[in-house]
Amino acid sequence: MKVFLELGWFFKQEKKAYISGVFLLLIVALLQLVPPKVIGIIADHINEGTITKAMLVEWVIVLVGVGIAMYVLRYYWRIMIFGSSVKLSKILRNRLYQHFTNMSPAFYQKSRVGDLMAHATNDLSAIQQTAGAGVLTLVDSLSTGGFVIIAMAFTISWKLTLICLIPMPFMAMLTSWFGTMLHKSFYKAQEAFSSLNDKTQESISGIKVIKTFGQEQEDIEDFRKQSEDVVQKNIVVAKIDSLYDPTISIITGISFFLSIAFGAKYVLNDELSIGELISFTTYLGLLIWPMLAFGWLFNIVERGRASYDRVATLLREKVEITDHDKALDTLPYGDIQYQIAEFTYPGDSQPLLNDIFLSLNAGETLGIVGKTGSGKTTLLKLLIREFEGYQGEILFGGQKLQDYKLEKLREAIGYVPQDHFLFSATVAENIAFTDPTATSEEIEHAAKLANIHDDILQFTDGYQTIVGERGVSLSGGQKQRISIARALLMNPEVLVLDDSLSAVDAKTEEAILSSLRQNRKGKTTIITSHRLSAIQHANLIIVLENGQVIERGTHEDLMELDEWYKEMYVHQQLEELVEHGGH
Amino acid sequence: MEEKMQLSEREQRKILFRLLSYTKPHKKMISIAFVLLLLTTIGDIFLPYLVKIFIDDYLTPGKLEFQPLLILGSIYMGIQIVKAVLMFFQFVKFQEIALYIIQQLRIDVFSKVQSLGLKYFDKTPAGSIVSRVTNDTEAIKDMFVTVIATFIQSGFLLTGIFIAMFILNVKLALFCVIIIPILLFVMNLYRKLSSRFYLDMRERLSQLNAKLAESLSGMSIIQVFRQEKRLRQEFGDINEQHYKAGMKNIKIDGLLLRPAIDLIYIFALIIVLSYFGITSFQHSVEIGVIYAFINYLDRFFEPVNQMMMRLSLYQQAIVAGSRVFRLLDEEELAPVQKDEETIAIQQGRIEFKNLSFSYDGKRDVLKNISFTATPGETVALVGHTGSGKSSIINLMMRFYEYERGEILIDGESIRHFTKPELREKMGLVLQDPFLFYGTVKDNIRLHNERLTDEEVKEAARFVQAHTFIDRLEDSFDHKVVERGATFSSGQRQLIAFARTIAANPKILVLDEATANIDTETEEAIQTALAKMRKGRTTIAIAHRLSTIQDADLILVLHQGEIVERGTHQELLAFGGLYHKMFLLQNGAVERLEDVVNG
């Protein structure tokens, strides 16, 4: 029940809804007592022949009134209590989302998207259950149960009530026990199901191997076995699930039997009328639900607590990259200087960057080359403050990066990442990602600069074509160029291309680079690349190896030097030849 | 791929009937379940009747004799217990039937998937195929287990209750019939409204989850472009929509589910009480009949509630069913063999004759390919990525159907061999050797049970995979995790070699691994390859030219065409594309410079 305390903030916030909801529930619980009573009274009068027309009309009116009142009240408590629980999951979902947007890449490195999704879906629905059905079962089982017992004991016969209640606790115990067993076996069935899922996934990924070895039939047989396992595990679930109704039926059956057997004795002793006995058995019927609910309550609350713990832990995760109090609210501009003695990724033992000292004047182009894993991308990630915690500093316009508000810093940088990620939206929306109000001229201009405009016009819906995971599939080169257009739309102070031309051919690369040179006069550009042709014209080229600068200078300087850079350059030229069939 | 679907009533009915047709093989089990159901229903109906007898014949007259009452009481408890036991078995039976039906459906879908051509897999994301096989069938299971079973059980009980009412009092029972159209009206209204609002809510939920999943994978982009606020807003909007849809559902449920049914119950109660009250003005009424009627009414409404609550599941299952059936009706089948007669592959002579091929029907990836591999010879395919090497193998392995040109084995079109014959005589080693979950032994043997353990080990020894396998914990029984992630790519390749050798094919098709392989394994692989090729016709895709220097014929592909052909020496002497590729892999800088500048 601790989870109700932990959710206290929400109950407080929604206290009006909860208090009135609970209040309505209580009234409904009281009103529920009326019909059985009426049945008893009328039955007695019929039995004794004392019934009159007026009396009948009177009671019918009472029943109509009670019925309508219950209908209305039941409708409203649902809105109050279930409505609030839906609200709770909405609030938590928004909170989680906001929290996700604040977490740095370091957080995303250590957590899997699937797990984060599970928190936002399964866990939230378990919490919603607790705040809705949990509250309902708690209040309803206590109030209905309590009122019915009171009504039975005080208005009919306390002796009979005691006798009939004897089997009832067994029902709460058994349902709670079944609940635990059901949960366990259900978990096993889920496991079997998810391994069937894995099996299917594997067969589909390995379909070529299966076909190559002509193993289709055998694989189907294997699938049959696994699906048989799913069936067996589910039959266990079905068996436990099927225990509920018979158990309830036997226990209530015993209660009914006791009430009629002992009730009959009291009727003969004139301690009870027949009508009262009928009322009594009808009341007994009303007790089934609260007893069941009490059994369920424990299961709901148990799951809700585990889920809330997980979500709360996630929300407590600290935001790592923040603005300091006096951060400048101005757009950075000017020279960029790296003065880094050492940088190590959180959790790694070896530093990834060592002694990076370089300075780039505003308006110049920096080219960074080197093998995979040499630290090129890391250098860029530090500039956009995706990671921190290096020894030394990076200056932008003479100020430390941390002296600017994060938002301002990033406004000055147009970043084109290595893994070009597009959202499931139109091409236009993807290009105008930073500025949804951009005009179609601005969007097209950016697209033309990135040499993708003509491609886009070829798409079925032009700029309105949906791309991304749920849209048309684009080639790697097209995605890269759309990412470039997205960054260019900002017309940023600094354009950062992180190996973003790898999937376009040499001609397109040259076209893009030259349109950048023409259109970005006076603005800074940083390019990392595997292909040296992309950085050939840079004002400064650095070659990284194991996180250190091993060569630096212009293209001419480095060719002169005749080391890694030159070897690579020649090699790539030959590759280029091969790609074009040797001519 | 989960596009929103609007199905007409007729389509829905068609899907339902097609789903129901899966019950046919279970006739016997179903009859047993129905008998059990009938018995429990009779028990349910009979119990209140016993109490009525007790009240009218014993309690009201006040004659309480021990003997008959003991009998009555024992019968009551006896029926109660027997009923409960039968009920348990009946519930279990119905669920069992449902589970077996779903298993059959699953196997059907899975078998269908296995029979589809690779073209289908190219155009359909793996995730959505998996969804068809598992999640959609699961949704249908929910319908069979809960909806259909509940409907049948409730239907029986309701009929039984009405029969009992008619036996007790025809006139009153007729009055009670009035509530049936009211119930049907409420039910139909609820079904119509909820199917709309419920689907709407599901739709919003899937939007919400899609947005969340996308944001999580694209978070660095969102952050670097400072769009956190805007996306929070967008997410908040979808969340709000979902909340509103959720509220609408709560309202509809509140208006038409339990509260409404309880209200109808009160009206039924009023009818019954008024009837007895009014008749009692003329003559006396048996009080036990009142008890029985009230008790029947109490029992009547619970199944109705159960049925109503399950209606939304029905809708979901129908939508899932339509998706499953669409896959079952898919016509993109694997290429068929015209195997009227069984011809065996004797020598393994392979011939490509003017073969052209296109995946999409627009752009040819292979143009006029012709070559011959005589028995025992090795033909190597080299070329840049996208030059068409893999397509040649795809066609040879019959993953795709070709229309222009011909592929012949021993002079017969490849279409004329039976599939088992092709699979048995042609062994393919894929570039990314796919390992399945299981043991090393399972992975070498695959499902071929005829192979003894000794033969499996022999195959591993032949390709020298045993050296590393022996070092593994449990050796050949070592557990292979998902996709063999704990092995290096070289080790995976060796296991795949052993797999192929164990099958002892006449023709070997190799797609050499490109991934970086450590030198130690590299050597083992080279030795193994050389041994494997001996005595077998081999078609090999080579990325490292060093591995195919001794090939009898090297074909250099560029943009789907064979641009150079000959032996290693001939091609080097020719000084064309092959020469440049060779230099690229082996040459020193100075040599490269000469070529580039020359």
Automatic annotation (TrEMBL), chain A:
Domain ABC transmembrane type-1: 21-303
Subcellular location: Cell membrane
Coiled coil segments of this chain: none
Keyword S-adenosyl-L-methionine: no
Keywords: ATP-binding, Cell membrane, Membrane, Nucleotide-binding, Transmembrane, Transmembrane helix, Transport
Bilayer-crossing regions: 56-77, 133-154, 160-178, 248-268, 280-301
InterPro entries given in the database record: AAA+_ATPase (IPR003593), ABC1_TM_dom (IPR011527), ABC1_TM_sf (IPR036640), ABC_transporter-like_ATP-bd (IPR003439), ABC_transporter-like_CS (IPR017871), P-loop_NTPase (IPR027417), Type_1_exporter (IPR039421)
GO cellular component: plasma membrane
Record has Transmembrane as a keyword: yes
Single GO MF annotation: ATP hydrolysis activity
Main localization, broad class: membrane
Residue span, ABC transporter domain: 336-571
PROSITE patterns: ABC_TM1F (PS50929), ABC_TRANSPORTER_1 (PS00211), ABC_TRANSPORTER_2 (PS50893)
Topology class, membrane: Multi-pass membrane protein
Alphabetical list of CDD domains matching this protein: ABC_6TM_TmrB_like (cd18541)
Name of the protein in question: ABC transporter transmembrane domain-containing protein
From TrEMBL, chain B:
Alphabetic keyword roster: ATP-binding, Membrane, Nucleotide-binding, Transmembrane, Transmembrane helix, Transport
Main localization (coarse): membrane
InterPro entries registered for this protein in UniProt: AAA+_ATPase (IPR003593), ABC1_TM_dom (IPR011527), ABC1_TM_sf (IPR036640), ABC_transporter-like_ATP-bd (IPR003439), ABC_transporter-like_CS (IPR017871), P-loop_NTPase (IPR027417), Type_1_exporter (IPR039421)
Subcellular location: Cell membrane
GO terms of molecular function: ABC-type oligopeptide transporter activity; ATP binding; ATP hydrolysis activity
Membrane topology designation: Multi-pass membrane protein
ABC transporter domain: residues covered: 350-584
Residue stretches making up the ABC transmembrane type-1 domain: 32-316
Pfam family, one: ABC_membrane
Entry's transmembrane regions: 29-49, 69-89, 144-166, 172-190, 255-278
GO cellular component: plasma membrane
Entry keyword annotation includes Transmembrane: yes
PANTHER family reported in the protein's UniProt record: ATP-BINDING CASSETTE SUB-FAMILY B MEMBER 10, MITOCHONDRIAL, ATP-DEPENDENT PERMEASE MDL1, MITOCHONDRIAL
Protein name: ABC transporter transmembrane domain-containing protein
Source lineage: Bacteria, Bacillati, Bacillota, Bacilli, Bacillales
